[in-house]
Amino acid sequence: MVGAERESITQRAFTGGLPADAFIDATLADIHRRYLGLDDGEVADYIPILAEADPSRFGLSLIESAGAVHEIGDADLEFSIQSISKAFVFALVCQARSTELVHERVGVNNTGLPFNSVMAIELNDGKPLNSMVNAGAIATTALMPGATSAEKWENIRSGLSRFAGRQLRLDGRVYQSEMEANQRNKALARLLESYGRIITDPLDTVDVYTRQCSLLVTAHDLAVMGATLADGGINPLTRSRVVSAEVARDTLALLASCGMYENSGEWLFEIGLPAKSGVSGGIVAIAPGKGALGTYSPRLDSAGNSVRGQRACFHISRALGMNLFASNAVERPWKG
Description:
By secondary structure, the chain is an alpha+beta fold. The chain contains 13 helices and nine strands. It folds into two domains: 3-77 and 218-319, Beta-lactamase (3-Layer(aba) Sandwich), CATH 3.40.710.10; 83-213, DD-peptidase/beta-lactamase superfamily (Beta-lactamase), CATH 3.40.710.10.
């Protein structure tokens, strides 16, 4: 990931709030300038329409739990949310049904295998293991309340919109492109059905799942959504409660262990934040009690994660003291 750069920036370590606004703004500007010209990685093309993304685009948005907004670059450029939706649909289902049900039906352990692995299901008696891989996300979507697929979809769309603080809309072109290229997800759904892990129509469930991945968001939206989890389920801009503090906590725990797939351990070691990425180039990284960072840049590495986005998260986490595991020593009177 970024191990070679571990000593290239001073680590700030504290457990309180974020630094002053001017320092945050200067940090984002410096990181954006540093990586704007980085051209490593390739734009995703296994979903045909994603190949049309402009590889030069790069946006950063950091939103504090208290509502302060810090942004630079293409922070308001729309792109499809893709797999980042998994985290917030998990939270919505846990809120509507129960975390215990999702834990029992899907699981919370990392597979250690790619996001679309069939082997992970077969090795675990048909259980997907977590809601961040495709099979687990499809099983989680199937648990969304709704008498029909249309109702389930509307519950997802409206719920993700509450996280973002605005009405999110479906990109029809992305949806159609994905429906023409999602044979593997359909196969995963059929496999889950054969194990009794989903009881709704598997193809209808894949349709709803594909729609959720095709919602349009911005780096700003991702930061708002992440900051909602950082603030115990309360949207920092609308100040409305989206999910309970307990659901927000459980979602962050799952993201920490599984959000970056088989690279989650390395991500947590290097960056120290619960996070989720999507193949359109977005990343959301969350510092509980502080805020969240949303990034967008469509050039991806071999694991499907934004190259610039990862670099930005690494340096911003260190510069602003966002790492979950970084803290200053408590000053005590000497008792020697």
